[in-house]
Specification:
Radius of gyration: 28 Å
Strand order of the largest sheet: 31-30-29-28-27-26-25-32
Shape: globular
Number of helices: 12
Number of strands: 42
Distance between the termini: 82 Å
Helix content: 10-25%
CATH class of the largest domain: Alpha Beta
Length: 759
Amino acid sequence: MRIIESLNAGWLFVKDTADITAREGKTVDLPHTWNAEDGFDGGNDYFRGSCLYVKTLEKDALPKADLYYLEFRGANSSADVYVGGEKLAHHDGGYSTWRVNITEALGDKTDIAVVVDNAPSDTVYPQMADFTFYGGLYRSVNLICVSTAHFDLDYYGAPGIKITPTVEGKDAKVEVEVYTTALAEGQSLVYTLYDAEENPIDKIESTDKTAVFTIKDVHLWHGRRDPYLYCCEAEIVENGEVLDNVCSAFGCRSFKIDPEEGFILNGESYPLRGVSRHQDRWGVGNALLPAHHEEDIDLICEVGATTIRLAHYQHDQYFYDLCDRRGLVIWAEIPYISKHMPDGRANTVSQMKELISQNYNHPSIVVWGLSNEISIGGSDEDLLENHRILNDLVHEMDKTRLTTIAAVSMCKMDDPYLQIPDVVSYNHYFGWYGGDTSMNGPWFDKFHATHPTIPIGCSEYGCEALNWHTSDPKQGDYTEEYQAYYHEELIKQLYTRKYMWATHVWNMFDFGADARAEGGENGQNHKGLVTMDRKYKKDAFYAYKAWLVSPEVDPFVHLCGKRYIDRVEGVTKVTVYSNLPEVELFVNGESLGKKTAEDHFFYFDVPNVGESEIVAKAGELTDKGTIRKVDTMNMDYVLVEKGAVLNWFDIDAPEGRFSLNDKIADIMSCFRGKLWFLGVGLKIKKKMNANKKDKKAGKKSGGFEVDLKADGGLMQMMGGFTVLRLTSMMGMMNVSFTKEELLKLNKKLNRIRKPKKKA
């Protein structure tokens, strides 16, 4: 009988070495990452290199078995395994399960040494992306003890059992295929089907490696509404003794993605409206415990999501299991992201094989993602061929699901890249990185009209918010108020377009991106609806809850702006979100009246005198906060960049003249502004070339390599940035400006008159 033992406790960890004899380190328990502190503190200087993990196994203490396998659930990014000093395996790809047969190398007392490496590479994805590539044995390591005859452990980390249910009217046909090793004469296979209460409902004993069940009056897996799961167990039996067994949950469902009707589950319209998720969190990095995954799924369910895009890599098996049980519809993808590497094709293929082989049985998964923003530098023939290979591979391995991509905003609608997958989604940030919020819906309408047979969705949209506040929210100000406004607008535009097959907020949680230097808290992407520590739900969280959660399930009322107390204006705007039809607002116990809002967003003009208690009431529910009249703006609410060489309020900005505080698009609206920006582009290019020379010389370098031409697609998208904000973001490209350089740039800008506004 198969025995699985956890090996998570008591590993010797030695940082910055690939020497398997090194022993000067510390004891750690798994899961573990060496970037739990430096992975999101800013500076793009988190440690990327080789580290050693060592554990001693005593054979007498192990369960008796014919064969022993080490199982690694996640080692980022590459790893070498040594047993008793002998190198047994190498694995590339930091997000999947893989195994090593260590039977022959085990002695009475044997050192297991694992060298894990997250250093830059030209062959292993990801290498360029807006998130931290945490290194380490950050998921569990197990010892699997099996008999000579066992369910296969050597094929791409797969579970050894493949279950394909097909709904046929009121019934379901369930095809089960197993993969075995060293099955001998006299040994048979026993397949048992169980319902959700673990009651056996059918059994087949055979020597065939396939079995077919029919479930009469099948109970369908129907997303959040009814995530019903069956289970199939397979056993290898000899003379009544079970030699090995595997078991997998599965769900019976049908789905369709229609270019006009969107997502259809079991013949019914089922709008996919949800979020994307990165796996890391504050103080932990990516070394998550089950309780962390459970908290994440609880929060995602609370906001009312019906779908999750699990970005940008394979997530923990436990989280896929939770998605099955909670009824979330899943987009699963590999980290083929941002930068196409001609020498990385084999790695995209192996990571896709692992993703599908290990996750085939999950009913929650409906699409396999081929890539994310990979055409940011354009689509050449090698990139296109890589996608065709992946697309064909997916359809060969899985005939029940569809393929998709997340296209970068600048990717043109006629790009041949868009013709490869079954369905398409776009990452758009109109209203944050450029343009304005009103552009989002019309863009999708144009795509839909141009390609009426291609299902289109929105795979990323969002904007950053920290604990900054204002009564006059503006694009790019990082305030909680602008984020709330942005998402109100996007909800109204995206959720009312039935043809959109899926929409995914970027992101559910703030996450580590050590190269980022913006928003006043470096090292993170702050587009989350919830903070990285999961302790604070931003106001925008409740905007989604108001739209997505039925009042019969979880009625609520939420008063926005509770962290924004001190306000200078005499009459201030107060926003309330609720999934109930009517809200009444009280100020110091006096009612300002009741309001209804079909869009679930309720706005009140509130007199701001002295200190006032504000109470929002919907039905029997209330939420309250405080506002206080002040004469001058509380600077604790105003963004001050952490570690910035220059802040916006230190910049000379003469009236009628440009400054670093102006948006790039405005500056480039006049001829002299374009000339000025061309000069800045040359300075940036010079700095980037210097970084490339440093890299060739062996110095550490990372981050983004992008086209910064004034007429380039990326710069057009970033037209909504102020110059100061753009220069601060250059840290992601290892480009920095001194205070003196910035003041010199500003002085030149001050000489340029702003064009007069047309009447």
